[in-house]
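SAMPLE LOG
Freezer: B-3
Tube label: C17
Construct: single chain, 220 aa
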Amino acid sequence: MHTPAFSAADYDKKIRQTVPFYDAYFAQAAAAVQGRFKKPVRWLDIGCGTGRMAEAAFGSVPLETFVFLDPSPQMLAAAKERFPFPCAQFLPLSAAELPADGQFDVLTAMLVLHYFREEERLRILRRCCAALAQGGVLIALHNVAPEREEELARQKEEWRAFQIGQGKSPEEAEAHLSRRGREFFPLPPAADLRLFMQSGFRSAKVLRASPFQAEYLAIK
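STRUCTURE (predicted):
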């Protein structure tokens, strides 16, 4: 199980100091689902955290069920307090344990998959594909590496500057950057897209990206 970057209590503040366009990624995910299905959707959010994806989905997409999945009891408790709705379900499971029974129309994995090395990420993506009904979609947001290794130093410096500009101390920014290769394992977007295709999806594309993260849409 990976260690969350921030505690449930300060997650919403700290993640916005870390990820550019954080809220826009969630709005983009909800917009990608709107109008795609002709019935209320069955949605599972992997690594739901405090419920930011649900905040974007509820009220904008007709929902049959919305499943919050997270191995952290603290994150699930925060989400459950925010979304006490009849269609909401809460599962204390990791991405590797998600129900792979073809019942879902939508899966989201926002800032989750970069915690897994390439081989394990491929296994989880295959499980995601198995969890979706035919025609279902996976929307995933994760940290990315530059396509060329020589661009890594510039990427790190720009990301450090962004975090400090958002109110983090230089020590906090450096601590987050130091997690690369130890706790999160970014791949270049081209490698991410290849993994989607290898895991059984029939198409995959980038929805939105910054120099540090990319959001993908994969269709089964």
